[in-house]
Design brief:
The protein contains two helices and nine strands. The chain has about 150 residues and is of the alpha+beta class. The chain has one domain. β8 and β9 form a beta hairpin. It is flat.
């Protein structure tokens, strides 16, 4: 028994931080503890694997192709996230100017507890282009990809 426990303890687990966080959120809901979880709403999964002509080929896993029935978009909480720019001295202090903006759009997913009335929320954030996004500014090299 001791050898098995030691082997399990020293095994390198391949959980990602996201999956561990989701497990914590689920466990807290099942214990009746109120909690929120925050993260990034990835549009694609790691990848799909297939064999083509005897070689492993990896393709994007478009897991949101048909949407997610459990999540609720929350556009009323969308926030601007500023990148680049510079700081200018003003009469009132300092001001951050000439920034490029990406909008952060939250999506909420309920995480219910087991046999109780606790439902926690996992909020994942997705990046969106602002309405006034100028594609002409993205000439080679594109500042968003630099």
């Amino acid at each position: 028994m001791q050898a098995n426990v030691s082997r399990a303890y020293h095994k390198k687990w391949t959980f990602t931080r996201s999956s561990i966080s989701a497990c914590f959120l689920d466990s807290m809901a099942s214990l009746g503890l109120a909690a929120y979880g925050y993260g990034i709403r990835y549009e694609f999964g790691i990848f799909n694997q297939k064999i083509s002509n005897g070689w492993q080929v990896e393709e994007a896993d478009d897991w949101l192709r048909y949407g997610n029935p459990w999540e609720k978009a929350r556009p009323e909480y969308m926030l601007p996230v500023h990148f680049y720019g510079r700081v200018e001295q003003t009469a009132d202090g300092v001001k951050w100017v000439d920034t490029q903006v990406v909008l952060a759009m939250p999506y909420d997913t309920p995480v219910p507890g087991f046999k109780n009335n606790t439902v926690n929320t996992m909020r994942l954030w997705s990046a969106k282009a602002p309405i006034d996004f100028n594609l002409q500014e993205c000439t080679s090299p594109c500042p968003f990809l630099a």
